[in-house]
Specification:
The longest helix has 6 residues. This protein has 185 residues and is mainly beta. 3% of the residues lie in helices and 42% in strands.
Length: 185
């Protein structure tokens, strides 16, 4: 979701669909004109809402969409900007790895766990756990515990049936900029 809208990736893999703004008592609805094409850089791997922006992830790139989108009544308003590419060669390879702390948007790239900040700068926060991720490369979930300021990732060797057999739990302690790793049996 983004603001009062739902987002989805079209079957073509390069278009983001968005719903009309939510109205109390009505279901979400979509229209063929409520789309954001993002054809450059291959298929979309994930989308996220972060700091009033839509973040469109591809395998090795990140695009940003600004604006509020058209108003519910169809009148004039702030439209969404065309997607613009960030100057990074990093993208998201696992949509289940995306988690927002409010200050950063964390996700799994080919090199590990990244953090996209509000100024759209990228930091490789997972460098210290790269060996663990090499052995357990599939992140199966990510969540943020705001009371402890910790981000918890579950990782597995594979994800055949949705379980995490003999996996690892990687915990990023944001205040300390430190990691702990636990086993999942």
């Amino acid at each position: 979701s983004h603001q009062d809208r739902l987002l989805g990736i079209a079957d073509d893999g390069v278009t983001v669909w968005y719903s009309a703004q939510r109205v109390q008592g009505e279901g979400a609805w979509f229209n063929n004109i409520f789309t954001i094409p993002c054809e450059q850089g291959g298929k979309i791997t994930a989308i996220a809402s972060f700091d009033n922006r839509i973040i469109i992830f591809k395998d090795s790139s990140i695009f940003v969409v600004e604006g509020q989108g058209p108003p519910e009544n169809g009148g004039n308003g702030s439209e969404f900007s065309p997607p613009y590419k960030l100057p990074h060669t990093i993208g998201c390879i696992e949509p289940r790895s995306i988690v927002s702390t409010g200050d950063v948007l964390m996700f799994q790239s080919r090199r590990g766990i990244e953090a996209l900040d509000r100024k759209l700068g990228l930091t490789w926060v997972g460098e210290r756990v790269r060996q663990t991720l090499a052995s357990y490369p599939t992140i199966t979930s990510a969540t943020y515990h705001y009371t402890t300021d910790r981000v918890v990732f579950t990782a597995a060797t594979s994800d055949v049936d949705g379980s995490v057999p003999n996996g690892r739990v990687l915990v990023y302690h944001a205040r300390l900029d430190a990691w702990t790793i636990d086993r999942v049996n």
